[in-house]
Amino acid sequence: MLLVVDDQLAIRQLLAEALGGEHEVVLAANGHEAIGVVRENRPDLILLDLKMPGLSGLETLREINKFAPGIPVILITAYGEVSDAEEAERMGVRCLIIKPFDLNEVRAAVRRVLEGFRFDFCS
Ligand SMILES: [Mg+2]
């Protein structure tokens, strides 16, 4: 199961459409919803928006890592938003997708991360 976390409805819908053909996709609109989903059912991969009201993407990931460490994460960001890429990698971020993204890039990134691909810029 893939968990998509983004505060923007249009982005959640876009990612659900792009990935829903090949994967079961669960959507969360904020960090608290995401934490609730992971408590119920551990995802194979999380696509996580960095900038959200309330808990940021990395704050959300920090909470998730306390009870479900090791889930691979694709972080969705704008350029320059990740100040400490090494810390992000330690937290499970395998790849950064830079907005605006191309859906083919997202599909390719998901495939690569599920195959065990390590940290890099995916787009
Ligand atoms: Mg956002």
Mean pLDDT rating? 92
CATH topology: Rossmann fold
Note the total helix count: 5
Instruction: Tell me what portion of residues adopts beta-strand conformation.
Output: 15-25%
- When the domains are counted, the total is 1
Top CATH class: Alpha Beta
N-to-C span: 23 Å
Radius of gyration, rounded? 13 Å
Which small molecules are bound?
magnesium ion
Shape: globular
Q: Quickly give the structural class.
A: alpha/beta
Describe the protein's architecture and organization.
The protein has 123 residues and is α/β, with parallel strands linked by helices. It has a single domain (2-41, 51-111), classed as Rossmann fold (3-Layer(aba) Sandwich), CATH 3.40.50. 41% of the residues lie in helices and 21% in strands. The protein contains 5 helices and 6 strands; from the N terminus they run βαβαβαβαβαβ. The protein has helices at 9-19, 31-40, 57-67, 85-90, 103-114; strands at residues 2-5, 25-28, 45-49, 73-77, 93-98, 120-121. It has a 6-stranded parallel sheet, with helices on both faces. The radius of gyration is 13 Å and the shape is globular. It starts with a strand and ends with a strand. The model has no long low-confidence stretch (mean pLDDT 92). Magnesium ion (MG) binds at residues 6-8, 49, 51-52.
Overview features:
alpha/beta; Rossmann fold; 5 helices; globular; binds magnesium ion
SSE layout:
Layout: E1 2-5, H1 9-19, E2 25-28, H2 31-40, E3 45-49, H3 57-67, E4 73-77, H4 85-90, E5 93-98, H5 103-114, E6 120-121
Parallel strand pairs: 1-2, 1-3, 3-4, 4-5, 5-6
Residues 6-8, 49, 51-52 line the site of magnesium ion.
